[in-house]
Structure formats: structure tokens, C-alpha cells
Design brief:
By secondary structure, the chain is α+β, with helices and mostly antiparallel strands. Helices cover 33% and strands 20% of the residues. It is built from eleven helices and twelve strands. Strands 3-2-6-7-8-9-1-10 form an eight-stranded mixed β-sheet, with helices on both faces. A four-stranded antiparallel β-sheet has the order 5-4-12-11, with no helix packed on it. A hairpin with a 2-residue loop joins strand 11 and strand 12. The N and C termini lie far apart (56 Å). The chain binds iron/sulfur cluster (2 copies). One iron/sulfur cluster binds next to helix 10. The site of one iron/sulfur cluster (SF4) has 13 residues, from helix 10.
Length: 352
């Protein structure tokens, strides 16, 4: 474990900007947003995000509207290369989201080239959560609000400076390149960080205690697939798709061909399982014509079919979908109500 003082970290980021486009949380008005750090800034101002940002890091790995191939009169053209990025403020739920999507796009026979290239080239500087949003529920999924794996470097504020955990050879090389900046972490700083971690975890557990289900979520959803409660849960959904767009684990996409001045291009666009045309087949048929069915499928995929296929739930408890929902639908509440409001007589009934 390393330690760096506050000014030292800014200096370190400035150095990184020579090799990477550095994106960090910054204060813009009342909002914390991800912004590119200008390499010419004398003292880069980086804000500490106490919890995950409103936006996820998904677009740095899986961009909507990305050109996946181009054709001109000379034939097929390769996709334009992008500069590697150093991403700061990545929280435990964001790290887990990347690892979940890796299952589909990387750790698989069929690999998504842009995802794999971005996973290889981007530098991830994670951070401990030191607070939580009202919608955060990672502990309901038995996770913790601090980085455990999947980062190159991880930082946590402690003792007026920063504790720096090295998580990869790439991270190690960057630390080793600044021998005067980093020193061994004092034991009391590590103890203070660990105490802060335990306190925040307890606070999150208390915040979400009323949503804790008796059964594992996979069972809660799978055993209630035929109840009518789904219509009640989906009653205020306006199909805005915001929950899919902000979700760091949603990864469905469509390919779309467009004309360009010198030929044509194929774009990859994010899809949404709330769309009536989602999973539409040749001939125009759609397997889930009613919104209630699509709503249910969203939960089924995240909490039942994805874990059965890939061994992990496709939700990190980041709560972004709760904050973004125009229908004020709270995923935790839906999962809890599945267990508490279903009627036994409906379980064997037809789906309406
Ligand atoms: S479903 Fe909601 S809480 Fe779960 S990862 Fe997606 S945005 Fe976060
Ligand atoms: S954000 Fe809410 S209203 Fe919009 S599609 Fe998702 S559940 Fe429906």
C-alpha cells in the first residue's frame, strides 16, 4: 500500500495526461460530472466523488453511435483508433459492472473488438465510496462500497492524503515511474480507511434494511413470473428507456447502416428492452407486445437468466435506474414487493 499527499496526486494526474486522455469527476455548478482534464492545466482540479456519479463509465468502453465499420469506393475501412483514457472516480459498483459485461463481450468465444480494446488500453483509477446516494443498494446484493478487484490503481482519502492500492502491472508501472511521489502507507492511515469502510457499509445496510428479501433475488423473481403483480409494478412506466441508458450493465445493441459522403458506415446503437420493437423478428412479430411483459423480462434477465448463464447478477445496485426513472420506479421496492405482495392463487394463473 502506497501513500501520496494531495498535491502529489494532482502532479501524478498531470503526468498521466501525457499518455492518456484523463477523465475525472469535476464540480460543474451543483453537479459532479466526468470531464476531460486539460493536460496544460497547472494544478488539475479534481473533485472527490463520495459515491458513484450520475453517469456511468460505460460509454468509455461501449459507445452508442460508434462506427464499427466503413466502406468507401476503395473497399472496407478499419474503425478509427481512439486514444487510451485514464478514468478516475470509478467506484466498486462501476468496477463490477465492467466485469459483468466482460462476461458477454470479452470472456467468451465471440469477442466484441471495441470493448476488448478499450478494456486493454484504458487505465482505471478506482476510489472508495465515502458516502452514498439514497438510491445506492450495493449491500443488498452482498457487495461492499470499496474497490476489491478490477482496477489498475485505487485511491482512498485518509489522513489528509491518499492511500493508493496497486491492482495491476500497469498501475505498478505508473507508480514506479514516480519514486519520489509515493511512499509506504502509514499503518494508522490504513486503519482509518478500514474504519471508514466498515462504518459506511453499516450505514448502507441500515439504509436498505427495509428492502431485504427473505429469498435470494433470483428466486424472488423466478417464482413470481406468473403473478399479476408485474402489471402493478409497471403501472407508472412510460417506456422512456432511461433505466437502460444509465445502467452500467445493460449492453444490448442494434446495428444500423447509414450513408456517408464517401460511402457507407455501420453504427452500433444501444438498444432498450423497454422498446416495443425489442427482439422484433423478421416479419415484424415481437415476442413481448405488452409493456408488462417487457418490464418483467428486464427483471428476469438481470436477476434470473443472466446469473444462470454467466454466474453473476446483471445488477450492481448502483441505483442509477432509480434516480433516472420518470415513473418513480424503485428497483429495490419492486424486488421487495414481488416477495411481499404476490397472491398464491395467481402463481399458477395465466399471465395478463
Ligand atoms: S439495474 Fe439499476 S441498480 Fe442495477 S446496475 Fe443497472 S442502473 Fe444500477
Ligand atoms: S426509467 Fe422508469 S419509466 Fe423509463 S423505461 Fe425504465 S422503468 Fe420505465
Amino acid at each position: 500500500m502506497k501513500y501520496v499527499d494531495r498535491g502529489g496526486l494532482a502532479f501524478f494526474l498531470k503526468g498521466l495526461a501525457q499518455d492518456y486522455d484523463v477523465y475525472a469527476p469535476r464540480q460543474v455548478g451543483d453537479e459532479l460530472v466526468l470531464e476531460r482534464v486539460d493536460p496544460d492545466e497547472a494544478q488539475p482540479e479534481v473533485a472527490w466523488n463520495e459515491h458513484r456519479l450520475a453517469e456511468s463509465y460505460k460509454p468509455f468502453f461501449f459507445q452508442t453511435g460508434k462506427v464499427v465499420s466503413r466502406w468507401t469506393a476503395e473497399g472496407p475501412q478499419g474503425a478509427a483508433p481512439t486514444r487510451p483514457r485514464a478514468l478516475l472516480g470509478v467506484k466498486a459498483c462501476d468496477l463490477k459492472a465492467l466485469q459483468i459485461v466482460d462476461k458477454v463481450f470479452r470472456d467468451h468465444t465471440f469477442q466484441e473488438p471495441a470493448w476488448c480494446a478499450a478494456r486493454e488500453s484504458n487505465l482505471i483509477i478506482a476510489g472508495d465510496c465515502t458516502g452514498s446516494a439514497d438510491s445506492c443498494f450495493c449491500t443488498l446484493l452482498d457487495d461492499v462500497p470499496w474497490p476489491k478487484s478490477g482496477y489498475d490503481l485505487s485511491v482512498a482519502p485518509s489522513d489528509g492524503g491518499w492511500l493508493v492500492d496497486v491492482g495491476s502491472q500497469k498501475g505498478e508501472a505508473h507508480v514506479a515511474a514516480h519514486p519520489t511521489l509515493f511512499r509506504e502507507a502509514p499503518a494508522h492511515a490504513v486503519q482509518a480507511r478500514d474504519a471508514a469502510r466498515a462504518e459506511l457499509k453499516a450505514r448502507l445496510e441500515a439504509l436498505n434494511a427495509r428492502y431485504r428479501t427473505r429469498d435470494p433475488l433470483e428466486l424472488s423473481v423466478s417464482k413470481n413470473l406468473k403473478t399479476r403483480i408485474w402489471a402493478k409494478l409497471a403501472a407508472t412506466c412510460v417506456q422512456c428507456n432511461a433505466c437502460n441508458l444509465v445502467c452500467p450493465t445493460c449492453h444490448c445493441f442494434l446495428l444500423h447502416d447509414v450513408k456517408t459522403p464517401d460511402g457507407s458506415a455501420r453504427l452500433s446503437m444501444w438498444d432498450s428492452c423497454f422498446h416495443s420493437g425489442y427482439a422484433r423478428m423478421a416479419g415484424g412479430g415481437t415476442p413481448r407486445l405488452q409493456l408488462t411483459e417487457r418490464f418483467k423480462n428486464h427483471y428476469f434477465h438481470k436477476f434470473v437468466s443472466f446469473p444462470r448463464n454467466w454466474g453473476v447478477t446483471a445488477c450492481t445496485g448502483c441505483g442509477r435506474c432509480i434516480d433516472a426513472c420518470m415513473g418513480r420506479i424503485d428497483k429495490r421496492d419492486c424486488l421487495y414487493r414481488l416477495e411481499t405482495e404476490w397472491l398464491p392463487s395467481e402463481v399458477l394463473g395465466e399471465i395478463h
